[in-house]
Write a structure and sequence with these properties.
By secondary structure, the chain is an alpha/beta fold. Helix content is 45%, strand content 20%. The protein has a seven-stranded mixed beta sheet, sandwiched between helices. Helix 1 packs across helix 2, helix 2 packs across helix 5 and helix 8 runs antiparallel to helix 9. The radius of gyration is 17 Å and the shape is globular. The model has no long low-confidence stretch (mean pLDDT 89).
Length: 273
């Protein structure tokens, strides 16, 4: 039943972008209100280094539990020098990515923006500190002045937006000249051509692109047991099946779509000229 529900929901999201945007906000509002564990600070599918060419980030032992999720951020952040730079994360979720970027990549200031006010309150409580803050706002109408940031990072969030073109215009607006847009997410395979056109039309230059679907699928395999355990401990049984689908555990709808390459997970590095 949960698989049918997820497939129906995803179909509606594809047909009605506004429905996708508002329902995701409701979902994240509820999650931030009722699931407050500070150790559950990531919601992405993760990234496993499988080609042997990338150097794994060295993490404190307390951060190892979130290694795979943080590696999705590190995969982007390691492409540019963020030390002493101003960085904005659009779609900061539960704050773990912004917190670990601040810790390991050392931007001078890090701002996380999220559409969910409840999530922002939770992030400021769990992660807020000097040089790291979280604000409520809309990715398609960023509440910052022109040329405010050296870099913008966006991780597994844009598939929720109503208008990708509006979002890209906002990213370009808030980036300083020469600034970088660090971007990773997933789309259905038939949507990839349109996405690449949108990126090429954004007046930012694509410096690097990668298909990281195998890396994400491997991360889901490696993280399966932990995700299942966390769901059984934290989520009421009534909603457990839906959360297993949301978490992308083995044999979930999303997991199988990645495995069949119906869904493509990608990363892009763009620069504002």
């Amino acid at each position: 039943m949960s698989s049918l529900f997820v497939k129906s929901y995803l179909k509606l999201c594809g047909v009605i972008p506004g429905f996708r945007k508002i329902t995701r906000k409701w979902m994240y509002q509820l999650m931030a209100r009722f699931i407050k564990q500070d150790q559950w600070s990531f919601m992405n599918y993760g990234y496993a280094q499988i080609d042997g060419q990338e150097v794994k980030p060295i993490l404190d032992s307390s951060d190892e539990v979130n290694r795979l999720s943080f590696q999705l951020y590190h995969h982007l952040a390691n492409e540019v020098n963020l030390e002493d730079k101003s960085l904005l994360e659009v779609g900061s979720g539960r704050g773990g990515g912004a917190s670990m970027i601040k810790k390991y990549h050392k931007p001078s200031t890090m701002v996380g923006l999220d559409y969910s006010g409840n999530a922002v309150k939770l992030c400021n409580k769990n992660h807020g500190r000097e040089g790291l803050s979280f604000v409520e706002g809309d990715a398609e109408n960023l509440p910052f002045s022109h040329e405010s940031f050296d870099a913008v990072i966006n991780v597994e969030s844009s598939h929720c937006y109503e208008s990708m073109n509006r979002f890209l215009g906002e990213v370009k607006k808030v980036l300083k000249p020469g600034g970088h847009f660090l971007f990773t997410d997933f789309r259905y395979s038939y949507e990839m051509e349109e996405l690449e056109k949108q990126l090429n039309d954004s007046q930012m230059v694509v410096m690097k692109k990668r298909d990281i679907t195998p890396n994400v699928l491997q991360a889901l395999d490696e993280d399966h047991d932990r995700r299942m355990t966390d769901i059984s401990k934290s989520i009421p049984k009534l909603f457990a099946n839906q959360f297993r689908e949301f978490a992308g555990v083995k044999n979930s709808v999303v997991y199988n779509q990645f495995a069949n390459r119906d869904l493509i997970y990608f990363s892009f590095i763009l620069q504002k000229q």
